[in-house]
């Protein structure tokens, strides 16, 4: 049965009759492409069965929520709240398409707090193995590369091979992004993936009736089922692509496998996250060179705002429109040379458009 109505009556019907709506099962598992896209995955040499070594995934949460891809009503100050990631058995699902959201999901989607979710995961006992949180962040709309967060390692085993991840949109009534039941093993080779990328989409937790990002609380008396936001059901076209025909991913989870020697469980991959906070999965070696295009050691720059990471490196702070933390400031460097006056003008224009942008 396809659930075409998202009214409270529909939800009630679903709840009282236990109809499984259109959850498609294949080998007892939910067909993942209705939930997320696994758009890159590479095998490791590590057989999942009877694995004695501890296997951990190190993941980065990357925002793809942009005003270019999701133009409608894009909030001025947009933030992802604390992204969470955990490993579990197939008996545990944090949320399911067309089922009512549990309280942990509701709180993440509405408030961005993860304590309820943590409680529920604790109570799930053996079904949940490991759990990690990354830092929520405000979107930097000038430097997209900074819109990432590092997860601590999450342990997986052959018994707990599934990963699920969630992060709330802030502001939003009850919208979140995430994926569930991502198998970290290649089902054909039986090996863990060594590296994969998951694209995740916006979802509506069905617990709040708000229709724009900034809506005040509008708790639904009869919660609706959790559903993925599509061009057909999007409120005020929020999240719909500029062409109006699709909803593009809003986040990406990229993970790499790390294997501990058998005698050293709980080992840690060194330099995670790297000191300069750069995206080492997107730009390998950027912990040594802050910019993959530039083959030089970097300068530490002054934070422009709370949207920046505390420690920020660029090959050339001034060229990146920032002030260096040490040495001559950008004005000092430019003084005296005509060509460098242009630099000042450029940075002035840069700054004014930055200010104008935020005041818009
Ligand atoms: C597993 O641990 C053993 C013993 O420490 C080690 O020799 C082996 O290389 C480890 N396997 C992997 C894939 O790291």
From TrEMBL:
UniProt domain Spondin: residue ranges: 45-237
Domain of life from the UniProt record: Eukaryota
InterPro entries: Spondin_N (IPR009465), Spondin_N_sf (IPR038678)
Entry's transmembrane regions: 337-359
Signal sequence, start to end: 1-21
Gene3D superfamilies for this protein: F-spondin domain (2.60.40.2130)
Key words, A-Z: Membrane, Signal, Transmembrane, Transmembrane helix
Residue ranges of coiled coil: none
Name of the protein this chain belongs to: Spondin domain-containing protein
The species this protein was found in: Fistulifera solaris
Lineage of the organism: Eukaryota, Sar, Stramenopiles, Ochrophyta, Bacillariophyta
